[in-house]
Protein 1
Amino acid sequence: QSVLTQPPSASGTPGQRVTISCSGSSSSIGTNAIHWYQQFPGTAPKLLIHSNNQRPSGVPDRFSGSKSGTSASLAISGLQSEDEADYYCAAWDDSLNGHWVFGGGTKLTVL
Amino acid sequence: QITLKESGPTLVKPTQTLTLTCTFSGFSLSTSGVGVGWIRQPPGKALEWLALIYWDDDARYNPSLKSRLTITKDTSKNQVVLTMTNMDPVDTATYYCAHRLGYYDNSGYWRYYFDYWGQGTLVTVSS
């Protein structure tokens, strides 16, 4: 069971705006930054958003992140077929001497 | 250009010890703020963080697996090694190593996250 909670699935049609939530605790998201990864089948995760809302170079501005309290969201606007992938949130958790925690992942389907 | 690559056995027997090596380039593990971590993913399942070693030799482990894990580094060889004891079929997974960046941004905030990942190596545990 993952420490960060994500919905197992999400969907949208091309052009739509989709959001994926990530819920944690006071020792994880409540205290530390949230990061998002995109993963296509058979490939390694790719950093999509870091430090709550920062896009690495090369990531389209259609992707955005936000955080409030112990929850965070990834938003994808102008949904495209190539956005169909798995999305994971991650954060450092200060409890138990400190450790990284990941969400259970959300499978995004573009209808 | 940062690259990482995992290597090790593709098949291990139950109760055996797994040893994986992460060989990297494009950065030094003696640079302040840098770390290398291991993350695994069972087939069709979510990512699970295993361990992380820092530039200063400090290390952190997944609390649920701590008793089975050891992470070490060889700065001169640009390698990080993860050992996991008492392997079980439930440990079958793709194992990734990843570069953990750490820095102070312009606002003075300490930023840290996994930015570059290796391609992963599938380890199957079966007799």
Note: The radius of gyration of chain A is 13 Å.
Protein 2
Amino acid sequence: DQQVKQNSPSLSVQEGRISILNCDYTNSMFDYFLWYKKYPAEGPTFLISISSIKDKNEDGRFTVFLNKSAKHLSLHIVPSQPGDSAVYFCAATDADKLIFGTGTRLQVFP
Amino acid sequence: GAVVSQHPSRVICKSGTSVKIECRSLDFQATTMFWYRQFPKQSLMLMATSNEGSKATYEQGVEKDKFLINHASLTLSTLTVASAHPEDSSFYICSARVPGLSGEANYGYTFGSGTRLTVV
């Protein structure tokens, strides 16, 4: 039972354009949502987070939007850069535990 | 910042042998650590929550007799894959939530660098 889902396994975006990565969840009790970037054979790297009481958080090129009624969040990266190419995971907190989504592979091409 | 050190980074073992993976908190005390497993092109699946001085809490479907977790001190948790088989080949990652950092942007969640286990 996957509580956090990323329905797009991959996304390809041209450099300079906006990348939008989506995430859906089923548990309305999740407190916080986090986005991570991950390369093969490495631990995840934290990008940005949002509390369940907010609907937007911005940090540089990264913005996360939360729609609680739809149980949906998205990560916007603008402008996208080739160095952003990686697998992105959304995650949600369940008490102390982090529940990860299924991941989206982002490829930014020149 | 808070660092979780995971060792080894990769290990190859023969089928039927046991492998131990260590996870250390370097500059903080971790009463709780988490162990994840990631198969290729799949999500990070939480396997168990490791509690210092007590038994680990395993997620549904995870064999506690195969994945032995010991959290004997506030800075060390170990995961032992007992009698490993090729299907146990995976990427294992530990994590901790750093006390006092829950107000930070990452809510204190810190990850090890992972261990690539290959069972041949």
Note: The interface with chain A takes residues 6, 9-10, 32, 34, 36, 41-46, 49, 91, 93, 95, 97, 105-107, 109, 111-114, 116 of chain B (CB under 8 Å).
Protein 3
Amino acid sequence: AQTVTQSQPEMSVQEAETVTLSCTYDTSESDYYLFWYKQPPSRQMILVIRQEAYKQQNATENRFSVNFQKAAKSFSLKISDSQLGDAAMYFCAPYSGGGADGLTFGKGTHLIIQP
Amino acid sequence: DTEVTQTPKHLVMGMTNKKSLKCEQHMGHRAMYWYKQKAKKPPELMFVYSYEKLSINESVPSRFSPECPNSSLLNLHLHALQPEDSALYLCASSQEYRLDGELFFGEGSRLTVL
């Protein structure tokens, strides 16, 4: 079974600044995937970034990057140059594939962007 | 086409009504999912269909009845619901079931049960 913890229910950041959202997880699998999904208000949930656990290099997607610490089971999301459109709920989700059944989401972090 | 389309966007129904939620994708994905999301909570998995066969039913009450008529369509039939069933119902699809976990979501159907 997998568990995932997002310890920040809400975060606030000034536009153009950098913010880091934290996520820790627990899994007995050695090979798995990690995802950050974004859910803007009244809009569909979309994938922000993914990380394969066997890769040591941290994933990046434009202004979004992760700090993946496998031994610590930590997977934080860094958003650089924050924009108003980044305001959303952010969900962390580990996935071990194989016998796993769908994604298990963390409780989410509500990100507020201050203009 | 990378869309998952859900209809209706909003639905209000009484406890004795029968209604259906519909979901469609044309990405050739072979797995489709129903999630339930209450306000300020993460989505919770309800059902998974893989190759049009029900793979997972997460102990969902029988008043929710899923159906997968073909690989592109997924329905959720609703009957005798309770007010606590009011929520956002999300449909998602993935290339394969139990592959890499990447899901494509629809915008959801917001259900209110009176």
Note: The radius of gyration of chain A is 14 Å.
